[in-house]
User: Fold this.
Amino acid sequence: MLTLVAVMAVFTVAGQDLKNNFQFDDSNYKIGVCDWMILKRQKIGAFALAKEIGADGVQLDMGSLGARETFDNKLEDPEVREQFLKEASKEGVAISSIAMSGFYGQSFAERPTVDKMVDDCINTMTAMGIKIAFLPLGVEGDLVKKPEVRPLIVARLKEAGKKAERAGVVIAVETALDAQAEKNLLSEIGSPAIKSSFNFANAIRNGKDIPTELRILGKDNIAQIHCSDTDGVWIENNPRLNMDKIKATLDEMGWSGWLIIERSRDVDDVRNVERNYGANTAYMKSVFQP
Assistant:
């Protein structure tokens, strides 16, 4: 059974600067959920719901993007940040990472204000003590279907990497590439602050064996893992996900960190958050935190 050592709220004299600080004493793996997938995008209720579901943490979103100059980010307000961190501490639920999910549908290569978006994300991370940002390159940044955007993405990730290095944080990028191609991309970017957000569903879509892909990518290149498949059935009922074999591979690699459940919802009951994510979290804990 996973035991929580500390969920710590650290304040300055002024009562600000709460930090997200979460430690475990007997597991290398922590199980999280995405706030937007549990229908709590940038809502303080995400922490209580994550606790009800049984998750160790929440991947918080930076807010919607649309045609704005930057994210609709409520967390830029110090009072709101403090409320979120107090609530996380109260519920005993960590913030695993912060997500720039707006780039699922927007172009990281072509949006003119990407620098500002990255700055806003890193500033929020620094203020809240969050060490990992999630950046999906999405449809417009699909390097398999749109290889012509690669030079622009590489250039922007090099600049983002410099900023992340100075801030002491990591940007975890999800691409449509297979493991070897993604490893080559990270090598081309050349920043220790740009790593992979590995997604099981992408590996399956590419027709690849997940344990093999994990080994190719390597422990040091993986910042976090999205550990679910596309919607259809729960993780435990999915023959495409052999979690015992995946855990054995990660154990062998010596990797540790956040396994974040994004989808794998029952397609016949897709909006039942408690049922879908409760079942998936319980199963993942039975495998990774026995």
Notes: Confidence is low (pLDDT under 50) at residues 1-17. The domain at 4-288 is CATH 3.20.20.150 (TIM Barrel). The first strand starts at residue 4 and ends at 7.
